[in-house]
Amino acid sequence: MKLNEILQNIVHILVFDNPILNYMISTSIKRFYDPTFSVTDEYKESLPDLQNGPASLIEGANVPIQQVGISNFRLPLLYPKPDGELIRLETNVDGYVGLDMGKKGINMSRIIRTFYRFKDDVFHFGKLKDILHAYKEDLDSKNGFIKLEYNYPMLQESLRSGLEGYQYYKVALEANLNESNEFKMFLHLEFEYSSACPCSYELAEHARESRGIASISHSQRSIANLTVELNEPMMIDELVEICREALKTETQVMVKREDEQAFAELNGAYQKFVEDAARLLYSELDHHSFIKDFVVRCSHLESLHSHDAVSRICKGIPNGLR
Asked: What contacts 24+ positions apart, CB below 8 Å, involve 152-158?
């Protein structure tokens, strides 16, 4: 037998008599996207679905998961204003459901698809309750959670010049529905204000009076982060007004010289430590029957120190917010 024939026989044995190699050669993968391909019901049924697979496919501990879902998907949503008008705002949405023991996973895209059925509606707490019921039904879950985050504009009038400008507030509507269909609703708000230090003010006045030295007390932009649990729905405008009434020194949008002087006077009249700010907010929040519970975090972004001064306070009801 010639050498060439021997080599051909060896190749035939190694390649064509090898079932794996033979299969790879006969079924070569095409790098091609077919825009005309149409999915039939039969083809769709053939697609693998690991999310709904048996419990034997679960990785790790076979235990329930309290929340699993989608975070930060965005779309423009309509919200009501106190005057009856509607405003459309870009919104970041978090949507979750609970996953029972023995289930591999959930259909993540179904959370978005369910939400999109409501995308043209007006959003308020009642609408969130409807969406959560839909989540529980569509994803066969015992509970659901949803949170909408957006920046809410409100017109603010300057202190003395009569100018107006838009102040934007970081806001979130949050709701959850448990397996007993108990519905809970929460409102989150970030409120910016100025805080003038009472101690610094007294020291500056002492230097001026005792030694004739020009001295300026320190103040700084400050942030109050509020979470309130509601007995009944309220609008964000109401919570903003509560903060304005409690703290008095909200930061300004439109400012002329007379407004800047007024703001200095306002800070002089309402000096506050970070502890004062927390207690002032507590006092105002505790007066409203539609607020069931609350937690407040005040941060004074110190102009004197290289660190922040922080105070946290909660209503203090049993098993409440902490």
From this structure: 152/79, 152/89, 152/236, 153/87, 154/237, 154/240, 156/250, 156/252, 156/253, 156/254, 158/252, 158/253, 158/254, 158/255, 158/256, 158/259
Q: Summarize pLDDT for 66-118 with one digit per residue, the tens.
A: 999 999 999 999 999 999 999 999 999 999 999 888 888 788 889 999 999 99
- Token digits of residue 239: 């919570």
Is 99 part of any domain? Answer: no
Tally the domains of the chain: 2
Within-domain flag for 113: no
Quick one: tokens of 52?
């709904």
Count of CA atoms in the C-beta half-sphere (13 A) of 129: 11
Q: Taking the CA atoms of 38, 42, 43 and 44 in sequence, report the sign of the dihedral they define.
A: positive
Contact of 93 with 148, CB cutoff 8 Å: yes
Domain assignment of residue 10, given as a range: 3-46
Sheet with strand 164-177: strands edge to edge: 65-80, 86-99, 144-157, 164-177, 183-196, 219-230, 291-300, 309-314
Average pLDDT over residues 134-149: 95
